[in-house]
Design a protein that fits this description.
2 copies of one chain form a homodimer. With 244 residues, chain A is of the alpha/beta class. Chain A has 2 domains: 2-94, Cobalt-precorrin-4 Transmethylase, domain 1 (3-Layer(aba) Sandwich), CATH 3.40.1010.10; 108-231, Methyltransferase, Cobalt-precorrin-4 Transmethylase, Domain 2, CATH 3.30.950. The first copy, chain A, has 7 helices and 12 strands. Chain A has helices at residues 14-21, 30-33, 53-65, 84-93, 108-116, 136-148, 166-174; strands at residues 2-3, 25-29, 44-48, 70-74, 117-118, 124-128, 152-156, 183-188, 196-201, 214-218, 224-226, 229-231. Chain A has a 5-stranded mixed beta sheet with strand order 6-7-10-8-9, sandwiched between helices. Chain A has a 4-stranded parallel beta sheet with strand order 1-4-2-3, with helices on both faces. In chain A, helix 3 (53-65) crosses helix 4. The longest helix of chain A has 13 residues, at 53-65. Chain A is elongated. The first copy, chain A, starts with a strand and ends in a 13-residue tail after the last strand. The relative contact order of chain A is 0.13. At the A-B interface, helix 1, helix 4, helix 5, strand 5 and strand 6 of A face helix 1, helix 4, helix 5, strand 5 and strand 6 of B. Strand 6 of chain A pairs antiparallel with strand 6 of chain B, so a sheet runs across the interface.
């Protein structure tokens, strides 16, 4: 399982390139494969559309069972809200004896944090607003828990064509614990040509542009906005004075 | 600010190498710089010991103010529990006009998750047990919040020479909400020669080897151990049947 990061070649590790290079077959979601044409040359390529994730993982396992060296390409990092778990569940269910290696890549977490400056200097909670596989009541419970304990909150899957109200509801919940001027960073399509970085507030979040390619980071009570950055200090008092 | 990942060259991105290559001066913690000798050749190098972080960041800012292109090397990712925030705070305090770019790298989060298979397939909370800059009461509050809302919990700074009881206390708190057989993954020195990966349970955690180079990942109520992996399913019911 190969994490190819946010999309541009300069953020793909040598380890990931080596894994692809040493493979017989490369399996992946068409949109991610289209970003790395050079790394596919000479390989058997199996590409498919987004919602065929289970099929794609199953196919990759089947090919590996035939003795082939297979790379299953994941955008970002296979290990963060991605397909690694699905592959293991299939391997376990099939009692397969193939070996699974995870090659980590830069997740949305890493790329978006870098674009926002320093939002994740302290404890943070990653919460997905996708209620496809998780009861919405549990997602709300997690939002309450994270906001009440003053975590920085990284919101994955904030919006999709079908899901547009969840982000507003998440904001309502967080506002029970955090002030309206709490900074919120939104990074869309990190490192790609259409990248957009915006820093706004919880109050003004409904006006911001958020889509399927966005990651939303809500600051904690100590976070502040500076220029187009979102900075979260590392602690709650300065142990080392910054002044001379 | 350049993230060099977990330590081995194969996990350093081309973007990070380019940033170092284009710099006049490279500043960093001696132990991380020793891992990348090739990337330092021909550069002015300023290295220092661990606890001189503020000085190191201040020095990097000063050199940049002299017009030099400076790379401040961070192990892992500058944006996750690292030095990015400190640099911004210094730049803001000095009213400096230097430009700060963050080059993301693989954080302990990415590398450790990869070694454990698939622990972070669902919502997770990252909590640091270091009470140097944060009141211990708040850390406990966060542990309660994360465990009660069934987050996977990534524990940073689980132990140090001076701090040995915090991990045991964290375990006590989590045990109020999770079963004793909840799987716990411990990755020490990920990707380095002395790497160690262990999967145990909350119950048996006190027996495990944990040190300053370790990251501890506590599963949620659906996580399970398989071989030497820690798998967290993506949701709370299977939307797509895995069977044929």
């Amino acid at each position: 399982m190969v994490g190819t990061g946010p999309g541009s070649k300069e953020h793909i590790t040598p380890a990931a390139c080596k894994a692809l290079e040493s493979s017989d077959v490369i399996v992946g979601y068409k949109t991610y494969l289209d970003l790395i044409p050079d790394l596919l040359s000479g390989k058997e390529v199996v590409s498919s559309a987004m919602m065929q994730e289970v099929d794609r993982c199953r196919r990759a396992v089947e090919l590996a069972e035939q003795g082939k060296q297979v790379s299953l390409v994941c955008g970002g990092d296979p290990g963060i809200y991605a397909m690694a778990g699905l592959v293991f569940e299939i391997v376990i269910e099939k009692k397969s004896s193939i070996r699974v290696n995870i090659v980590p890549g830069l997740a949305a977490l890493n790329s978006c944090a870098a674009r926002l400056g320093a939002p994740l200097m302290h404890d943070f909670a990653a919460i997905s607003l996708s209620d496809l596989l998780t009861p919405w009541e549990l997602i709300e419970k997690r939002l309450h828990a994270a906001a009440s304990a003053d975590f920085v909150i990284v919101i994955y899957n904030p919006k999709s064509k079908k899901r547009t109200k969840q982000l507003l509801r998440a904001r309502e919940i967080i506002l029970k614990y955090q002030k309206p001027d709490t900074p919120v960073g939104i990074v869309t399509a990190a490192t790609r040509d259409n990248e957009k970085v915006e820093v706004t507030t919880l109050d003004r979040l409904p006006e911001a542009e958020v889509n399927m390619q966005s990651t939303v980071i809500v600051g904690n009570s100590t976070s502040f906005a500076w220029q187009n950055y979102l900075i979260t200090p590392r602690g709650y008092h300065h142990k080392y004075s910054l002044g001379e």
